[in-house]
Amino acid sequence: MKFCKKYEEYMQVQKQKKNLPGVGFKKLKKVLKKCRRNHDGPSSKIAFIDQQHDDHNCPRGCTVCDGNFFPELLKEMEDVVGWFNENAQKLLELHLASAFTKCLTWFKGNSRKTSHLGLIQEGKDLVNYALINAVAIRKILKKYDKIHESRQGQLFKTQVQKMRIEILQSPWLCELMAFHINLKESKKESGAASVASPSTPVHALFDGCSFTFDDGKPLLSCELSDSVKVDIDLTCSICLDTVFDPIALTCGHIYCYMCACSAASVNVIDGLKTAELTEKCPLCREDGVYKGAVHLDELNILLKRSCREYWEERRKTERAERLQQAKEYWDYQCRSFTGI
């Protein structure tokens, strides 16, 4: 089955369950077919000669390049990433919620979402949604470059990555990966795996998802499909150690919370929300990335489980540092209040 038909069938089934956005793959292909007919006309040879002088641009007079294709795809990508982030956040917040909150959810008629298998299925649906849309975007951009004999598609992909609307760069995908491993480890620890019968189905969000140390470097990796693999380096580029109490800035880079506070020139009492918009990410040097930072709670649980000795040592060190910062902060507040 061709991918276009597979994608349309998938989206049709999903839209029957819930109203969710997607990439207009079929519509964009039709636009490219129309563009191809224009390129195959009498002026195509002249256009090709013009293009040889500038490999980065499409042939002159291309109506697709003039604003029909990329703005539409950009809008669809923003909708897809926004829906994915919002629903992944809701799912993970429910997983870490108190028993009272889960009870309220159950009374509202969402008992499926509060069960172990229900959470796994919701997570799997989100992962499949992210994967098939990532592949759809990759394929349509590749087709664009093939028809235009250009690299505009690749340049567009690079641009949207900088704009933080690439679904595979979402911090919530990282959280879902950690969520999957945590559920699997929880099942092992509770002994459910040992008492399960051989016929019991094994439920998982990802195939081949793992947290490992590669030459001492912590790595969260996952093969979403044969063509899509996600590798996330969990080394904080500020302290050069495994991230502790991890936080993802809006540019996508992950740091220890206290390291991020230090880089943003704020203390842990005020937090990253008080960071100035001029403060930049230490890696990519992009500004305004601190206020929308995401606390990676599932990843923190995974690191606590996987690196017990290191995590406990860092906890003691950071606790002492936080107490010191808190003392200095309140001393300063008291002096400001009393005028001393």
TrEMBL record:
Gene: LOC104760108
Classification via InterPro entries: BAH1 (IPR033326), SPX_dom (IPR004331), Znf_C3HC4_RING-type (IPR018957), Znf_RING (IPR001841), Znf_RING/FYVE/PHD (IPR013083), Znf_RING_CS (IPR017907)
Record's keyword annotation contains S-adenosyl-L-methionine: no
Swiss-Prot/TrEMBL catalytic activity: S-ubiquitinyl-[E2 ubiquitin-conjugating enzyme]-L-cysteine + [acceptor protein]-L-lysine = [E2 ubiquitin-conjugating enzyme]-L-cysteine + N(6)-ubiquitinyl-[acceptor protein]-L-lysine
Species: Camelina sativa (False flax)
Occurrences of domain SPX (ranges): 1-158
Taxonomic classification: Eukaryota, Viridiplantae, Streptophyta, Embryophyta, Tracheophyta
Protein name from the UniProt record: RING-type E3 ubiquitin transferase
Known EC number: 2.3.2.27
Pathway: Protein modification; protein ubiquitination
Gene3D superfamilies for this protein: Zinc/RING finger domain, C3HC4 (zinc finger)
Residue ranges of every copy of the RING-type domain listed in the record: 236-285
Record key words, sorted: Metal-binding, Transferase, Ubl conjugation pathway, Zinc, Zinc-finger
Domain of life according to the entry: Eukaryota
Any one Pfam family match given in the protein's UniProt record, by short name: zf-C3HC4
Family matches, as CDD domains: RING-HC_BAH1-like
PANTHER family (UniProt xref): E3 UBIQUITIN-PROTEIN LIGASE BAH1, E3 UBIQUITIN-PROTEIN LIGASE NLA
SMART domains per record: RING (SM00184)
